[in-house]
User: Fold these one by one.
Assistant:
Number 1:
Amino acid sequence: MRRVYLDHSATTPVDPEVAAIMMTYYTEKYGNPSSVHGFGRETKQALEQARNQVAELIGAASREITFTSGGTEADNLAILGTAEALRKKGKHIITSCIEHHAVLETCEYLEKNGFDLTVIPVDEEGIISVDEVRKAIRPDTILITVMHANNEVGSIQPIAEIGKLAKEHGIVFHVDAVQSLGKIPINVEEMNVDLLTVSGHKIYGPKGVGALYVRKGVRIVPLIHGGGQERKRRSGTENMPGIIGFGKACELAGQRMADDAEKQIKLRDKLMNGIVERIEYVKVNGPVGEKRLPNNVNVSIRYVEGESLLLSLDMLGIAASSGSACTSGSLDPSHVLLGMGLIHEIAHGSLRFSLGRQNTEEDIDYVLEQLPKIVERLRMMSPLYDQVIHSKKA
Amino acid sequence: MYTEKVMDHFTNPRNVGEMENPDGVGEVGNAKCGDIMRIYLDIEGDIIKDVKFKTFGCGAAVATSSMVTEMVKGKTIDEAMVISNAAVAEALGGLPETKMHCSNLAADALHKAIGDYRDKQQKKE
């Protein structure tokens, strides 16, 4: 059976070049970078090289990069670390309603512990309004945390403008860039970002490694205390194979970003337009064109439910994801789709396809051939579709 | 996450469809929560002669609907009334914990359809 992986926003395969270089740091170059001896010095040097590779991809200085166990830890470190460092200055935090759970849950945890939280809305394309952020700012605002690109609908946020606003008001600005890294250019200087979260496994690097960019002069309190690694920001012996792999993945992403984007935008539009042409009652979720990540397709297919679509696609070897309640583990569908104003029943029928380097035109053709049949089968089973059939007959 | 039996009923659901003049119809759930099940009954005497269903929902919702139709065909309505949601789940070899409360409503739809049938009978008398 043909297998088509279209869930790269969940995770990516590790690039063979990345995997190969990681291997040597398991079996040959296993020294602890904190050790004085040659084994340690060898890995310490490699650690700093990886730090530089990450820094280069986002326009930072390498000393501003702190390695973590992944995007979630970096988000926690940024938000909790800033709140702790600035709690005497103020207690107000601003975020948006479409953030990843790693940000939203962390902010809500702070809210339960004495901080004030303003969650700003998005428009119907899933884009934050800079004006709303401006209106939310208070004299005691200490942190604004907004994602660069949304993981579900691919909407790219006006980070540079929000960054400018934060800078004018002397507010720390954190950006979760897990989904945008390696897909669209990031420059922490041009975007006026103080803290930036990145992760390895979304860019053909390994799982279990990420980083937080911390602008020089910005103070954060560590979450993990111990041996004082990572400039005392994140104790614990460094995950060397992971860090080396992440560094290499960043280097490759920098080289391939333009080509990847060009190719994936073509496939993205072919898939999105193809679905709309072949299936009735479909709504595209998120923006079209330049405000959308090159690899994201998100559609709501009316009168059918997302998990049923996923199961049916999976049986044909196609991997995608959905914002339906059944896949979120709660009774409500995706907070992102609801935040964009979708009603529950349309959010339940959402499908996300996220493209990657290995996807081909044939992959898209295969999906476009199979999906309409799946939808037809499920609709014939759906009581919600009855009214449509009956009105058509009439 | 689903048993083979659930996947079998999801892939090849039994008794999908509508009925022209059903003796009883029962619907549970709503589009907001992501599951709607509708069951149609054809009853002769006290026996469920035929049963059809239509479901909007996840894999578990479709599979439990299909399963319950298979379980009640040919049964008396009294026998059908004692079939529980838990029994439907059990007949499928179990459901994931998260699905037990939200998508396991097929027996409720069946009982509603029988209730509808009984209401109609009473009105006739």
Number 2:
Amino acid sequence: MPNFFTENEDRLFQFNNLDIKEIVEIIEDNYKQAEKYDYAPENYKDAIDTYKRILTIAGQICAEIIDPLARSVDEEGAKFKDGEVEYAHGTKVALETLKKADLMGGTLPRVYGGLNLPNVINNIIIEMVSEADASLMNIYGLQDIGVTINKFGSKEQKDKYLPLFCSGEVTGAMDLTEPEAGSDLQAVQLKATYDEKEGVWRLNGVKRFITNGCADIHLVLARSEEGTKDARGLSMFLYKRDKDMKIRRIEEKLGIHGSPTTELQFNDAKAELVGKRKLGLIKYVMSLMNGARLGVSLQALGIAQAAYNKALKYALERKQFGQKIIEFPAVYDMLTNDKLDIEITRSLIYYTSKLVDETEALEKIIEEGNLDRESLTKYRERLKIVSKKADTFTPLSKYYSTEMANKVCYDAIQVHGGTGYMKDFDVERHYRDARITSIYEGTTQLQVVAAIGGIVTHIMDDEYEGFRNRAKGHEGEFIDVYEKLKKYEKMLHEAIEKVQEKKEKTYYDYMARTVVDMALLIWFAYKLMEESKKSSKKSMLARKFTVERLPVFEALYKKVMEADETTIRNYEELLGIKI
Amino acid sequence: MYKIVVLVKQVPDTHNITANAMKEDGTVNRAALPTIFNPEDLNALEAALEIKDKFGAEVTAITMGPPAAADVLRECLYRGADKVILLTDRAFAGADTLATSYVISEAIKKLGKVDIVFAGRQAIDGDTAQVGPQTAEKLDIPQIGYMLELKSLKKDVIEVKRAIENGVEVVKCKLPVLITVTEQTNTPRFPSAKKVAVYKKAMTKSEINKIDPNQSYIDPSKYSEEYLRNKGLLIEEWGLNDLKLDPSMCGFAGSPTKVYKIDSVVLEAKETKNYEPTFEGVSTLIHELIQQHIIG
């Protein structure tokens, strides 16, 4: 029986090497939850065994039910009829199947009926769902709305809404974007006014490009402070679908046809405030966005896996010039590089997921307040570092994975040749689906902006040091590479100094992506070498990476150190424009 | 609340046949093949669970087999069965369909009042499609074969659409009834993530003794029969004595079927014939059946 979990060698490798003992211990309250809930694990082995079983069920559903329906979902798309959205048939079947298998509410606590999974485990499910049908991930992944309510909502809100998310009775939407507020969310104008008479908030205005706007539960970013113009006047509201919100239209899109993208009009719609006023964008949306960005990273990774699988299959079947095309160096060059890219991305995303888990676990311990002063200080310090890492690795993941997915899909069509350009094969769908990932939830360019801050404050130094310390004494065949990377770390420091030394921020902004690439190259090399201790295949990939990819580092270094301003000074003339 | 029994079977995975799939005497070499949940029994379980979801029911799954057959019973629990029973005894080994249906029908009698028994049409190992009907005969209850769809269930009357050659028919029947189900009847559900987390720990008494504390997440010192029963995790085992059975009617001793020889047969599709449901039509049919030595 096909299974996206048990049949994916790399997913299994990553799962078997997760090492999340401390995280699980904390989220399971030292396994005390087992006394209260029959489906809670009694120890770490038990937890890992259950995770594996859950992932196996999800992997089977993805392979047997969702994947075979994906083509029809793409062709049919979500429809707009009489002011209401109708999911494609396949979308409905997929959601119903996941719901029946109790795969909703993955990371939500058991008290609401959730599975209390670590993010890193739940994220493997999201990745597999994306591999099966990228458009379904948008609806499935929007359970994040429940997660945000759990983090910032009141007890009443949690009691009322979270069980609905866990049972799969409701889906969610996050209503942020407006016609004049896309990347720049500070410009949000949708108005929230307090209705004194009824003691409720009322929403008025328009939201655009809202994924799954037909959802039952919305989190809406709105301007609650009249007269304000920036982020400090925005609050977050929980809106439960009723007649006071109209779906005006759904968009015709290049890809992810199963995911309805809507325009919404709120007419005096009743809503509840979530958390505190004025923290809407500054705190809550930032947190929600981080979750969503990781979700899109997983979506991109899943799409890349699907496209790669199909390209590999085709290359094995297709014969030209009397041989299978996979035997041509130009073809296996593409496919081996795609495999390398998929696997390093998976390492990056799973590691990021673990950082998110660690952050949440530490926050939980500190919040519970059963610590003596000394351990409290220790945990707080650790939290500071880990959460900063999570905040940097999340945009890094999104940046790298979504660009990677676009490239892998491009290659997948290339391997298929002219056939791949036709609708008869799936790769053109994957190519269209992948395209949005580097745009929504913050474009690649904005991910670089979000990540560069961490890089220039040397967040990576601790990472690199960790890799080196763990490898000390058994660098093995890679001993030279470890030496080289030490040198590269110094070069990265120089590059960081270089971009910061100029008074104008323009050069810093212009070179940000290059510096981010440099930092990532070192991280990937270390990571692959670490993984190569546990797998000979990873060892091959590590060698390939250090030989074929790492040399680019020096070119990037030169580019930064040159400090050439030709483009910055002349881009207007170059483009023939005048601003 | 309806009481439903589902008959399930662990079968060799005939999709993955190897050269030693058959023993020299022509019987199936079960040890050489991986085992799976008989596909159409999953449909039978689904039919029961759909009634449970819609009308409320207590679903009991029973299987006859070696101790390892507890696996399919856990699979039933993962999907929503309320109770499972393993019919196992050395004396049951080597049973043909007659001996099997004897043991199963006696087990159902022991369960008390039962409204519906669901069985898969046939198992992929023997392909006989006999155990369901024979069980109904032994229980002396009506049977409906090849269910396609449940039309209605009102008090003690069930209405079912069933497949017949060249068409369908809708039949009404008073409970209790035995119904056989095919792959066309429904789409079996997947295991539930939550139920798997709970019932992966369900086991028979004999399985408790086999826990390897180094491998398992289970602390064997904690797992007694008593402990499992209290938690609703004990898979009951019924043997010859529990059911007070006649040993001469069980297992090899109770099986008139003997494998004489094995032939490789290629089935050829033959045309179908229609007979009018009239006196003349039926007598023509009977006449032809006698002529071809099928009956008589």
